[in-house]
Queue: 2 jobs
Job 1
Amino acid sequence: MRHTGQEYIAGVLAGNRRMVAKAITLVESSRAEDRLLAREVLAGLMPHTGGALRVGISGPPGAGKSTFIEVFGLYLIEQGLRVGVLAVDPSSRRSGGSILGDKTRMARLTGSRQAFIRPSPAGESLGGVARCTRESQLILEAAGYEIILIETVGVGQSETLVAGMVDLFVLMALPNAGDELQGMKRGIMELADLVLVNKSDGAFVDAAQRTAGGIESALRLLHGGSVGWDPEVMTISAAEGRGLAEVWSLFSRFREGMTASGALAYKRQEQARAWMWDLVRDGLTQRFMAHVQVKDILQGLELRVVAGEVTAVVAAELLLDRFTDGGGADGL
Ligand SMILES: Nc1nc2c(ncn2[C@@H]2O[C@H](COP(=O)(O)OP(=O)(O)OP(=O)(O)O)[C@@H](O)[C@H]2O)c(=O)[nH]1
């Protein structure tokens, strides 16, 4: 049965898990009628959002992100909090599976009534995944989830997207004394508000300390992280559940400090502004590609550009003219 916008809104605000799941399915749909309904639902929920701490977690495969999210999520629940977990996983398109896709990986957290875990939507472009994740985040906030953890796998573009939708961005690293930055690109290190060197247990404790020291020096030179916050480095062991209270206390310190200084409000305002422009750009591209007059000549023109018969500049101008006045001089 199809629900009305009001039913979605009331269900989500009441924290009804089934309605939360359905509302996320709704925003994941790209059908025109679903988009219209999703817009109504999101507008109704909007005044009830913004209360959660939004955290992005990234790092190379095998760093222990899933293990950490499971134990940290359970720790937060013990503190009386409700936790939402989302993923931005561009690889889910190809493999069909995804981070979080396999629920056995976070079995205990998945089983908790205080947690809501949603894998990355499949079959979407990275921009599409980002849109769904942003909208799902709003739904979870309106439903009363107080901490939203957004996991992403380290492939560059997805980190930048996630960093653009969260308050605090965490990078997870492995103890590896020989290569303290572990091939992490400078641009990604610059996004980090906190670097967690995981697996600081057993034989890895010393290596983890050395890695943390190396990363600390690198961070000092980078001057990265959120405006108004100096990035920090900590060693933890997700497997042994060590460091969870310290991570939570850092999150709280981040939120309090950034709220008091106004930096968090400013960051969110700028994120909203950038999000709007992302949507305008995406929408324009979609409309451009679907424009009849543009479609008429697009393919042929592209081939002529590739063949060197028409310059890119002339071709682009011609296409844009067609788009804006539906005609344009065909002076080729
Ligand atoms: N020794 C040790 N092993 C850990 C720790 N955390 C995770 N692991 C192990 O490291 C492996 C990878 O952990 P995951 O949590 O799946 O890592 P991930 O970063 O989510 O990996 P991807 O989803 O592939 O990106 C698993 O075998 C974990 O059991 C830790 O703190 N100490």
Job 2
Amino acid sequence: MGHLTIKHVRAFVLRGGGADYHDQADGHWIDDHIATPMSKYPEYRQSRRSFGINVLGTLVVEIEASDGTVGFAVTTGGEPAAYIVEKHLARFIEGARVTDLEKIWDQMYQSTLYYGRKGLVINTISGVDLALWDLLGKVRQEPVHQLLGGAVRDELQFYATGARPDLAQKMGFIGGKMPLHHGPSEGEEGLRKNLEQLATMRERVGPDFWLMLDCWMSLDLNYATKLAIGAHEHGLKWIEEALSPDDYWGYAALRDNVPKGMLVTTGEHEATRWGFRMLLEMGCCDIIQPDVGWCGGLTELVKISALADAHNALVVPHGSSVYSYHFVATRHNSPFAEFLMMAPKADEVVPMFHPQLLGEPVPVNGRMRLSALDKPGFGVDLNPDCQLHRPYNR
Ligand SMILES: C[C@H](O)[C@H](O)CC(=O)C(=O)O
Ligand SMILES: [Mg+2]
């Protein structure tokens, strides 16, 4: 098996939800006047799709071994990511051994440094890396959590992200994270509305249920500080991604400014051990939230997580469906996981990457038994009903 080599890598593009989970139809809670860095332009305030949050679509990477076994993964990246896989990265993958994950990662990262390091290129590298882990698991007939060293818990616990933490509470989740709706350009009135929304939700869920606010990079330090102070009386557990991911200094200051006991979280748009080193060494946050499909994949996340552990920081991956479930099961410093509510009204549990994956497990009563992950690789298949398009067929 150590001698199995990789015969082909193929990159496809898919539209409509799935790994590009912001690509949803009208009326979805995820696109309803959510504060963003673009909210200062009134014409881009109501909808994130209006400024292009969904332009990329999903990248599907398929990797086939010399014995015909196929591993695959999905992430955000679409056509430009497919170009990078087929025209650049394929040379490091085809002909390599199926066990060569570290070497392939290093070659992909080093060879793209001149135009990569973060964002789309690292999403692409993540997609290839996850497909390699899936392939290795399928070749060895073991779930990825076993390849990672084995689970440290029998069950995962989830908080839910969506517009209705009150419904999430009834569904058994341990907490609810809501999008922030109004940014600094909507002034004091917007701030008041943000706090009213939190207060209303606190009334509905009672004093003990976790409530968090996801600010999606939309605030400045002054506004974030005022929001945190105002939100304290409503028991806000954490303030997430309040500032630009480039503003490490702002995050360090925000962590000093927030009321005692409130956590500062960020990192879903951060990448690689070097990016997370900045967050950790500068004391930017209490919880880092790498997205497994965007941060460099699982090979990189293992390194990021070790670094976080040494800084006493928790690692609670952003979204990422099965890719994060297999990881969270194996880490002591990942005590719970995120579940993104993809039902348009956030009123029922549907698979996070629906409709792209078949066999994608979901939490039941806010929990997931490890046995739901006991299938080779990441344990999911591509849904054959989804229309794959291969734009750069070599
Ligand atoms: C709800 C947020 O704006 C975003 O769509 C998802 C996110 O940042 C998260 O799940 O965290
Ligand atoms: Mg977030």
